[in-house]
User: What shape does this take?
Amino acid sequence: ELYEEVAQMAIVVRMHFESVARLYSGAYKTITKSIEHGLATSDLLINRIRRISYSMNPARIDDLGLDAVLSTLCQEFSVLTKIDCSYESRFDEKQIDNEIKLDLLRICQEALLNVMHHAQATKVKIRLEAKRNKIELSVTDNGKGFSHQSKQSFGLRNMHGRAASINGKLQIKTEQSKGTRVSVSVDAMR
Assistant: This one.
């Protein structure tokens, strides 16, 4: 609710700047520069609000469940980055305890941050499914992939640490120019 209210105010501010820009287009250089600065600042504000909303998802797991939070995360990621994101799930959420849910969410967020900052992808797919007695989360992109040396980055070490904390197994498959698949598999019942 807070995100929606603040985001709406930022969008209204941007609309006012656009309206003023139409009225004074080219008439006064000082006003035009000020309007351009206001529009740029509005865009930064809107993106910052989206990023804050994107990072607040963990608190909603208890209320909405992991499935709904991951679905929303995917939608917010698409809006924030303009990268097509799809989400698919086939699992029984009752089989997963809250610690596992939170760590799966954090691993997904870290994988999406890597896509956002490094992959140069146009599509990403998040999938959460039950496989035998395990739950598997995968995040797959069609980006540029990365080299073996990059696998030691802070974000990837963080994902490995989170997977280990829930006795999960993290796998990263990547190939130059063919994208990356990050997957974590964990026992459904602990």
Remarks:
- The CA atoms of residues 66 and 93 lie 7 Å apart.
- The chain has a mean pLDDT of 82.
- The longest strand covers residues 123-131.
